[in-house]
Amino acid sequence: MMRAAVIGAGAIGAFYGGVLADAGADVSFVARGKTLEAIREHGLRIVGNTEVTLDVPATDNSAEIGQVDVVLMCTKTFQVADAARTHLSALMGPDTLVVTTQNGVIAPRVLAEIIGAEHVAPGVCREWVKIVEPGLIMDLGGPRMLEVSTMDDSPNPIIDELRAACETASIVSPVIDDITTTLWVKMCSVVPQGACGAVLDVALGDLLSTYRDTFARCIDETVHVARGHGAKIADDFVEKNLRFLAGQDPASTTSFQRDILAGRPSEYAAQVGAVPGLGDEVGVDTPVNDVIATVLGRREAANRA
Question: Is the pLDDT of residue 129 over 90?
């Protein structure tokens, strides 16, 4: 049986790790603080579209878990490097894969520099989940999907085992033959929404109406950057994405948007803060993203001061 460890028992880590564990997978959790206390005292709880309470192994000392086949790295992007250096030496064997779950394209780069690209499996999570309180997660629904591949899309038996475990847990996990495009497609959707929503302090409905032109230009710039990095993004992506978003809750916001507006450290540097630099790497100008990144960068710095 595949052994897995989840680093970070927030919304994504608790949901995917919990659902896999509920289906019989051998999953341990690396958590800390109030989250660790809550899991130990009450179990890992998921409510909403998924209803389950699980008695799962949880620790703040990864050495207690030992080597595993798969690690789900479910921290915020700005925590990935520290989590990797703190925990992965105890969890990794010669064939272990570490699956990134963060929005954007930065986390796989960061992790590859620390453990080597051959151990990194970029992933894209597609389910709407949120933290109700430490150790208690609300599953709001969605595709219930985990898209994952190796950095170079080469076959890997550990990926095959993970997909099989996902199938048992009713998580859709298709074979991915272009993880670069998969990562960028989600970035081109989620990052502009969070960026525009945060800088304007509005929810999705206003972005699609009052500020539609600015929102569309922000998406379009990100798409051009994605293509510069080799992603195969369709010509009609912007309009299709806007139509898709029109079917979502108009009051919705992204976790990045909520964090930065609430004064918490956010994933700014891996999301809108990364777009101008990623554009520079491939010679793509991003004037709308440049302005948004500058404004939100000042706010992020103040939040962290």
Answer: yes
What is the set of domains in the chain, with CATH numbers? 3-177 (3.40.50.720), 181-304 (1.10.1040.10)
Q: How confident is the model at residue 288 (pLDDT cuts 50, 70, 90)?
A: very high
Q: In what order do the strands lie in the sheet with 58-59?
A: 52-54, 44-48, 136-148, 120-133, 92-100, 68-73, 3-7, 26-30, 58-59
Q: Which two tokens stand for residue 81?
A: 């490097």
User: What local confidence, expressed as pLDDT, does residue 85 receive?
Assistant: 98
Please state, for a pLDDT cut of 70, what percent of the chain lies above it.
100
What is the pLDDT at residue 1? 83
Q: What is the 3-state secondary structure (H, E, C) of the chain?
A: CCEEEEECCCHHHHHHHHHHHHCCCEEEEECCHHHHHHHHHHCEEEEECCCEEECCCEECCHHHCCCEEEEEECCCHHHHHHHHHHHHHHHEEEEEEEEECCCCCHHHHHHHHHHCHHHEEEEEEEEEEEEEECCEEEEEEEEEEEEECCCCCCCCHHHHHHHHHHHHCCCECCCCCCHHHHHHHHHHHHHHHHHHHHHHCCCHHHHHCCCHHHHHHHHHHHHHHHHHCCCCCCCCHHHHHHHHHHCCCCCCCCHHHHHHHCCCCCCHHHCCCCHHHHHHHCCCCCHHHHHHHHHHHHHHHHHHC
What pLDDT score does 299 carry?
97
Query: pTM of whole model > 0.85?
Result: yes
C-alpha–C-alpha distance, residues 257 and 294, integer Å: 15
Nearest to 97 by CA among 58, 143, 57, 152: 152
| Percent of the chain whose pLDDT exceeds 90 | 98
